From TrEMBL:
<feature type="modified residue" description="N6-(pyridoxal phosphate)lysine">
    <location>
        <position position="631"/>
    </location>
</feature>
<dbReference type="Pfam" id="PF00343">
    <property type="entry name" value="Phosphorylase"/>
</dbReference>
<dbReference type="InterPro" id="IPR035090">
    <property type="entry name" value="Pyridoxal_P_attach_site"/>
</dbReference>
<comment type="function">
    <text>Phosphorylase is an important allosteric enzyme in carbohydrate metabolism. Enzymes from different sources differ in their regulatory mechanisms and in their natural substrates. However, all known phosphorylases share catalytic and structural properties.</text>
</comment>
<comment type="function">
    <text>Allosteric enzyme that catalyzes the rate-limiting step in glycogen catabolism, the phosphorolytic cleavage of glycogen to produce glucose-1-phosphate, and plays a central role in maintaining cellular and organismal glucose homeostasis.</text>
</comment>
<dbReference type="InterPro" id="IPR011833">
    <property type="entry name" value="Glycg_phsphrylas"/>
</dbReference>
<keyword id="KW-0328">Glycosyltransferase</keyword>
<protein>
    <recommendedName>
        <fullName>Alpha-1,4 glucan phosphorylase</fullName>
        <ecNumber>2.4.1.1</ecNumber>
    </recommendedName>
</protein>
<keyword id="KW-0663">Pyridoxal phosphate</keyword>
<dbReference type="InterPro" id="IPR000811">
    <property type="entry name" value="Glyco_trans_35"/>
</dbReference>
<dbReference type="GO" id="GO:0005980">
    <property type="term" value="P:glycogen catabolic process"/>
</dbReference>
<keyword id="KW-0808">Transferase</keyword>
<dbReference type="GO" id="GO:0030170">
    <property type="term" value="F:pyridoxal phosphate binding"/>
</dbReference>
<comment type="similarity">
    <text>Belongs to the glycogen phosphorylase family.</text>
</comment>
<dbReference type="GO" id="GO:0005737">
    <property type="term" value="C:cytoplasm"/>
</dbReference>
<keyword id="KW-0963">Cytoplasm</keyword>
<keyword id="KW-0021">Allosteric enzyme</keyword>
């Protein structure tokens, strides 16, 4: 364990020095001083972990995204330093709450990136030899602002403050070749700290740099532009995270990022493998690599290439080694998000890797023919087809394990999207239901509830064994427990109100019902459906069709990909609805709508603990899992959702009767052969009334025509889709009914808090500790390193 006294003394001395200079201690400065002092102490612990891991099989998580959020408080908690340091700092007039100013590390888009971060936390806490590889983007996911209700994107300049949690490791630098040019891959290591144990794993993020930071030979030869161009070529590769999690774009920069990540990480693992005195034949015995979706899948042909070209391994043996090494996780059912790269681009950027892909494709075609597949089927399943590289096919063919991220998702993959592959390799398919780390998503973000749980359970064991929450189910019978639980929720709601007032300038009351939908903005997630339902409720409150309504705030938080026009139109629409309702004096004590700006990990840490109702309303069969749903559940909110993704398992664990499931299920939607949204619109005056607000002048889209486009998307369709492809109008009546049922039920606070409590007490399964144990046992074959 660390020497808290020494750390505190270090930081206090630094603080004094800054103060002598007349400097105020800002949150960022405090973060820097604390983190630096801790990092110094961590180095020997990290080295000890590395040494132990040399002896055993290791797993590596390859991911283009890591949504780490703020590091400092989580690290203080995991190291067990928080309380003591808080006291020490108080003594010199410093409040650790100042750390709330510190910026998030936002190197990810959404669920997939946050999952990677939760997995690393669980790996270290379980003492597993699990380390991460990713990219050190100069700019993370954009910062969102609203201007007149329109989303505007600003650069996320997260490195404008020094990044004390990373150590540059020049000694582990390697080179990567792209388009015949060589660039440097320089690793920056971030510690991944196990909770109250001595494990310090690492997240190694690659930064791309020119081989010579500035080529003076060229410069002196008057080749000024070339000298600068070389530097820019390299630095562009890790300049920015693609802010898109829905449509795959055939961009050469993205291919370069993906190959750069794959190549550098593999070189590093192979180097370690050899340093440990091992040969490539034993590579899969000592190394397991998990591919977080298809983004790092160039690793498959790249390892094949290295084995053949550099290690003299035969093609067949190389495929065998590769297949034993990799596991592939699929995170999406949406066809648009399945990566298909333009073969010509791949060939230009990595010609030799492309040749290997061609050879793998030939082998796959042979295997398929041998397995009795006809020409047409072979063409459908090929890796190279229509001058494109199908990354998912490459991943499945050369992995020993393919997994979905929730039961229903894995079933849908087997039955629909990947049915041909399931028929070919049934033994490769597995389910690994997602999870979240209770350290960040309860212990850190909800201290009052955490303390109360600890008090009831008698100890803090639940922080590393979330199943212990089931013991709390019996306490639901105790009215005093539920009353205390409600008091805690109210404190959390007040905290959120304060934050909303400060950040959004909207005054809210914690006595309202808090109903929250936070996630990336996407049509399939149906924020638009939520907005239409709120409008319907609003109109019905105005005309008296609804009475006895419990005052409610509907919260939204979501970023839209900058090029996703319709998602941006939905944001503008929700902001218009919010403006109308919030400015209506009749709604003052009844209804409010807030779209929080720049929803990110840190905002989430305030929102989840304050929620009464969690909105999870994707069209059945579209959301792979969802993990926000689990964060709400763990903090004691009920789910208002469709029978989709992990919602299915949430209600299985917490009881249908304690949640609000509505809408069509997958089978019902599949059986719909002539879906006619126009008939629904014409046949239901309430549907018509809300949909017409898009075109009757109720709302102003600033003459962009975006509301007309939204209207058309529901009733006319577009060149690329049928009208109302996500069945909003189909589910709208049952959704409004469910929203009103929640609202009525909430009036009986005691009964409602029973449901909330049962959800919290049933959340044990959704710990990422459980998920990671399953990966470790069923896919990676790794075990905790002995102390
Ligand atoms: C190819 C590129 C456009 C792309 C980039 C990022 C495609 C997809 C993504 C990210 C996808 C993602 O975040 N998926 C979410 O993964 C979560 C973790 O498994 C799931 O819980 C969630 O349902 C799924 O939408």
């Amino acid at each position: 364990m660390l020497d808290t006294k020494r750390i505190a003394a270090d930081v206090k001395r630094d603080i004094e020095l800054w103060r002598v200079q007349g400097e105020d201690i800002s949150g960022e400065l405090l973060n820097f001083l604390l983190s630096k002092a801790i990092m110094r102490e961590l180095i020997p612990l990290h080295e000890a972990t590395v040494e132990k891991q040399r002896k055993v099989k290791n797993a590596y998580y390859f991911s283009a995204e890591y949504l780490m959020g703020r590091m400092i408080q989580n690290n203080l908690m995991n190291l067990g330093l928080h309380d003591e340091l808080k006291e020490e700092m108080k003594a010199v007039g410093i409040n650790l709450d100042q750390l709330e100013e510190v910026e998030d590390a936002g190197l990810g888009n959404g669920g997939l990136g946050r999952l990677a971060a939760c997995f690393l936390d669980s790996g270290a806490t379980l003492g597993l030899p699990l380390n991460g590889y990713g990219l050190r983007y100069r700019y993370g996911l954009f910062r969102q602002q609203f201007e007149d209700g329109f989303q505007k994107e600003l650069a996320d300049n997260w490195l404008k403050h020094p990044d004390p949690w990373s150590i540059r490791r020049d000694d582990r630098t390697c080179t990567v070749e792209l388009e015949g040019k060589r660039v440097l891959a320089v690793p920056y290591d971030m510690p991944v700290i196990g909770y109250h144990n001595d494990t310090i794993n690492s997240l190694r993020l690659w930064q791309c740099e020119a081989i010579e930071d500035f080529n003076f030979e060229k410069f002196n030869n008057y080749e000024y532009d070339e000298a600068v161009a070389e530097k820019n070529y390299a630095e562009n590769i890790t300049r920015v995270l693609y802010p898109n999690d829905s449509t795959d774009e055939g961009r050469s920069l993205r291919i370069k990022q993906e190959y750069f990540l794959s190549s550098a990480s593999l070189q590093d693992i192979i180097r370690t493998h050899k340093e440990n005195g091992r040969t490539m034949a034993s590579f899969p015995t000592y190394n397991a690599i998990q591919l977080n979706d298809t983004h790092p899948v160039f690793s498959i042909p790249e390892l094949t290439r290295i084995l053949i070209d550099e290690e003299g391994v035969s093609f067949q043996n190389a495929l065998d080694i590769v297949r034993k090494t990799f596991g592939y996780t699929n995170h999406t059912i949406m066809a648009e998000a399945l990566e298909k790269w333009d073969a010509k681009l791949v060939k230009e950027i990595v010609p030799r890797v492309y040749e290997i892909i061609e050879r793998i494709d030939q082998q796959l075609r042979k295997d398929l023919a041998a397995a009795g597949r006809g020409e047409e089927k072979i063409e459908e399943m090929a890796i190279l087809r229509d001058k494109k590289v199908y990354m998912a096919h490459l991943a499945i063919y050369l992995s020993h394990s393919v997994n979905g991220v929730a039961k229903i998702h894995t079933e849908i993959l087997k039955k629909r999207e990947l049915s041909d592959w399931y028929a070919l390799y049934p033994e490769r398919f597995q389910n690994k239901t997602n999870g979240i780390t209770q350290r960040r998503w309860l212990r850190l973000c909800n201290p009052h509830l955490s303390d109360y749980i600890t008090k009831l359970l008698g100890d803090e064991g639940w922080v590393t064994d979330l199943d212990r929450l089931t013991e709390l189910k019996q306490d639901a019978a105790d009215p005093a427990v539920l009353a205390a639980f409600r008091d805690i929720k109210r404190i959390n709601k007040q905290r959120l109100c304060d934050m909303i007032w400060e950040k959004e300038g909207v005054k809210l009351s914690p006595d309202f019902l808090f109903d929250i939908q936070v996630k990336r903005l996407h049509e399939y997630k149906r924020q638009f459906l939520n907005a239409l339902a709120i409008l319907d409720i609003y109109f019905c409150l105005k005309d008296g069709a609804i009475t006895g309504f419990t005052p409610t705030v509907y919260f939204f938080g979501a970023k839209a990909a900058p090029g996703y026009d319709r998602a941006k139109a939905i944001i503008k629409f929700i902001n218009e609805v919010a403006k109308r309702i919030n400015n209506d004096p009749e709604m003052k004590d009844l209804l409010k709508v807030v779209f929080v700006t720049n929803y990110d990990v840190s905002y989430g840490e305030r929102l989840f603990p304050a929620a009464d109702v969690s909105e999870q309303i994707s069209t059945a069969g579209t959301e792979a899992s969802g993990t926000g749903n689990m964060k709400f559940m763990l903090n004691g909110a009920v789910t208002l959702g469709t029978y989709d993704g992990a919602n299915v398992e949430i209600v299985e664990a917490a009881g249908m009767e304690n949640n609000y499931i509505f809408g069509a299920r997958v089978e019902e939607l599949e059986a719909l052969d002539h879906y006619d949204p126009v008939a629904l619109y014409e046949g239901n005056v309430r549907i018509k009334r809300v949909v017409d607000t898009l075109i009757d002048g109720t709302f102003d889209d600033g003459d962009t025509g975006m509301f007309q486009e939204l209207y058309d998307s529901l009733l006319k369709g577009a060149s690329w889709h049928d009208p109302d492809q996500y069945k909003l109008l189909y589910d709208l009546p049952s959704y409004v009914a469910a929203k009103l049922k929640v609202n009525r039920d909430y009036a009986d606070r005691e009964k409602f808090s029973f449901k909330c409590w049962m959800n919290m007490a049933s959340a044990g399964r959704f710990s990422s500790d459980r998920t990671i144990r399953e990966y470790a046992k069923d896919i990676w074959d790794i075990a905790p390193v002995e102390e």
